[in-house]
Design goal:
Distance between the termini: 28 Å
Strand content: under 5%
Helix content: over 70%
Mean pLDDT: 86
Number of helices: 12
Number of domains: 1
Structural class: mainly alpha
Low-confidence stretches: none
Length: 265
């Protein structure tokens, strides 16, 4: 049943090809501007920075290619509307778990957008001259763990956004929570700047948060900035936060549905 919902939402998302084309143009520009900006700083004193410039360039292009997978401000308005309008009662008539159904829909929504955009962005980045383009993973070992971390990061993002959806059961308006969460996640997940660029004391704390288990981990594994025991610890932390947030989300959903009141016919 949940696979069927995933498939329906995925196929629906593939219909928005014009929006994907516009998004790709934006991502090309942002990727180039970001790399040139960092290049200006690296030319002053490259040894002062915590990441190799090629690893940083790969990080930025992966970020642009998979933006729809990892940026928290990409929401499904239908889910918010279903809760605030009272339409959730129709969802409850279905013989399935509401949380799992919405989770599968959210994953499908993000994956469908990424499928339309990622290949042209990666192809463009791969033909750029080094070190401005994206290189291959530093090793087969890094490539393997990149794919593991890649999907764990996606599930971490969806588990986090599910908590924001569920907050609609407890608030009249979700705009404040959505804005606050979007700003915090963009900075603390490494979307604005990679986390290695943060001061050591701040970075130590931030990397323990679930937000650091999003794009920060797979992109750094790909470029070789994260390896060895530190890489294994970060991937284990991804799995830990997925379990914690899914359990919390299911508990909050169950609690909300026991108290929810829907007015009207």
């Amino acid at each position: 049943m949940y696979l069927a919902f995933f498939k329906m939402k995925f196929l629906t998302g593939l219909q928005y090809r014009a929006a994907a084309a516009a998004g790709m143009a934006t991502q090309f520009v942002w990727g180039i501007f970001g790399i040139l900006l960092y290049k200006a700083f690296y030319e002053t004193n490259a040894s002062a920075f915590p990441m190799d410039f090629q690893a940083l360039a790969s990080y930025i292009w992966l970020q642009q290619a998979f933006l729809s997978l990892y940026f928290v401000w990409i929401f499904e308005e239908d889910i918010f509307q279903t809760i605030t309008s009272g339409g959730v009662v129709y969802e409850l008539c279905r013989p399935m778990d509401l949380y799992t159904m919405w989770f599968s829909r959210s994953v499908a929504n993000r994956v469908s957008q990424a499928v339309l955009r990622c290949l042209p962005v990666l192809l463009f980045a791969s033909i750029l001259k080094r070190p401005y383009g994206i290189g291959l993973p530093v090793s087969i070992h890094a490539a393997f763990w990149f794919f593991i971390s890649f999907f764990l990061a996606l599930f971490t993002v969806v588990a986090f956004t599910m908590l924001i959806y569920i907050s609609a059961f407890y608030t009249i308006q979700t705009n404040g929570i959505r804005t606050l969460a979007g700003g915090l996640v963009e900075f603390l997940s490494g979307a604005t700047i990679p986390l290695p660029f943060l001061p050591d004391g701040v970075r130590t704390v931030v990397e323990l948060l679930p937000l650091a288990s999003m794009q920060n981990v797979p992109f750094r594994v790909y470029g070789g900035d994260l390896s060895g025991n530190e890489m294994y610890a970060k991937i284990a932390l991804q799995l830990f936060w997925i379990i914690v947030m899914v359990m919390l989300g299911k508990w909050l959903t169950s609690r909300a549905l026991r108290r929810v009141v829907v007015q009207g016919g």
